[in-house]
Structures are given as structure tokens and as C-alpha cells.
């Protein structure tokens, strides 16, 4: 399937646009880098991932059926959750707030 075919709405009539804001441009770039390596496996789904406004992940999904769209978006959101959890627990200044530090038992 060519890029021109992917852009045709009659081939991919179901679509969804997600905007995922992150606290900083560094975190957005890190999340983008981690998420972009996993290409969409199904030829029935098209995904475009980019960073806008320096700290917002923009994800455009298009699919041939509503079911394929739902499955692809659910899988992607699971990956987003995993990336955010890893950044929160392993990066030094990701979501710096006293509530997240306190909940992990780390003294302030």
C-alpha cells in the first residue's frame, strides 16, 4: 500500500486524533522516540505520530473498520502508559511533585 492510498479517506473511513500533553519538550521527545519504533502491524490501520507545540504528542489513526481502530488505539495507549510509567520511575525529574515521590516512599 502506498502513502497516497493511506491518505484516501474512502480506504480508511474511521479515524481518531489524540493529543497527549507532556510536562516538557524533553519528555515529549523521549516518549516520541520510544513510541515511533513500533510500526503499526496491520495494513488495515494507518498511524501518524508527531510532536507539536514542543510538548504535545499528536497521534492520527485511520482504519478500515471501527473495530480495527479500537484495537489499534487500545494497544497504542497501553504502550503510552508503559512509556510514562518507565519515565516516571527511572528518569530523575520527570513528574517532579511531592505526591509522586511520597507515594513511592522516597523521602522529600
TrEMBL record:
Q: What is this protein called?
A: Transcription factor Pcc1
Main localization of the protein described in the UniProt heading? cytoplasm
Where in the cell does this protein reside? Cytoplasm; Nucleus
Q: What is the lineage of its organism?
A: Eukaryota, Fungi, Dikarya, Ascomycota, Pezizomycotina
Q: Which UniProt keywords apply?
A: Cytoplasm, Nucleus, tRNA processing
Give the matching InterPro entries.
CTAG/Pcc1
Tell me which Gene3D superfamilies the record gives: Alpha-D-phosphohexomutase, C-terminal domain (3.30.310.50)
Q: Name one Pfam family in it.
A: Pcc1
Q: Which GO terms describe its biological process?
A: tRNA processing; tRNA threonylcarbamoyladenosine metabolic process
